[in-house]
Amino acid sequence: MSATAAATAAQDTERNVRLFVLYRVVSRLYFHLPVLFLHLYLVELGLYRVIALLAIYGLVTTVTSGVGGKLLTQLSEKQVVAVGETMKACGIVLLLAGTRLADVDMHLLVLSQIIGGTGFSIALSTDSSLLRSLASAGGDSTLFMRAQTRSQSQMFIATLVAGTSGSILFDYQPFWPFYASLLASVSSTALVLMIREPAVARSASGAAAKALQLDSGQRFWMGFYSLSRAFTLAPFVGFLPFYFIMVNVDPLLFGAVLGLFTLSAFATSLAVNGFIKRFGVRVLMVATLCCMFGAMLVLGCSEWLANQGMDYFVSGLVGITLLGLGSGGVRPATMANLDLSALGPLERVALFSRMERNFGVANGALLALGAYLLANEGFQVLMMSLGVLYLLALGALFFVNRPANVSAESAP
Description:
The structure is a single chain. This protein has helices at residues 3-27, 33-42, 47-63, 67-71, 77-100, 106-137, 143-172, 176-193, 199-204, 216-246, 251-279, 281-300, 302-307, 312-327, 330-337, 345-376, 379-400, 404-409. The protein is an all-alpha fold. It has one domain (13-206, 215-409): Growth Hormone, Chain: A. The longest helix has 32 residues, at 106-137. 51% of the residues are buried.
């Protein structure tokens, strides 16, 4: 390759990666997410139906986890991501239609969750593979992780700003956060379509995928990602909003309060790589477990803490902050340690799809169990039960599929 051609390729790679990072940031502008539970609750759907809708979204990501890989046999990676973003936008439109009518249309709401969940699954299972393809075209082995870390940090900021802004918009007009999220989804579709995929990525998308052969380390990090996301997002999306509604948090502050989760997760994501280098993966696992279990313990003991003089609102703030601290390192740690070097684009998409499928199963099960416990036993019993389940699940995962890099740390 001539010097001119190499320089042109490097410029194309830099442009593509910049567009990809911008796409990721815009696609995470979830203005409506912090107020979604509140919105559905205020239109008087009832607790069971609200949580059922949230569970449907998670379960759909399970059923559709392989759709991205199937689409890759006909479309390029960026086109598959664009399809997912377009479906997310359609889901928001249907959700608006289902709650704008005089009588809430449950059928439209279910359809919105199905289409939106499918789009989320397609986009999320393919975008990391697209980034790896773009980065590998530049010949820089460190570009993928640098872009991954940069986009991760900016995504947290985008989610935090969007969540806080969404609560302010909701206070003025309940549908404005949904309009803002719809605009963000359409914009992210346009951004990803502006990427110029390298020829190797386009030709690879038409190849047949090989059956995944996973080692114990890959299985561990896949399971760690799926379980930790489920035990994080099920309380954050399905149960903590109900807690703060019962505490009578003003709608204007709703997004800001839930934004503590994003803010603390962002702080963790900035420190996680240095933390691993200094203390190792084993200590990271222990710290993550302690933060997440500590969050569930504080929330589960909120009634006892109230009797000791700590206000329910303060307990909620402590709990959601600890939950964010525990969750912030999940994706960066997973992507830094999950070995994808021997996998092609289709195999990478299949692996990410399996991770999202496992997350969907766990998330749906936790939401279903949580809805029953919340309605019949109360919030405190629910959070204590989730804490015990998280300890058991992560402990079993660690001892069944102990990753090689964790085992190596104990060697002299």
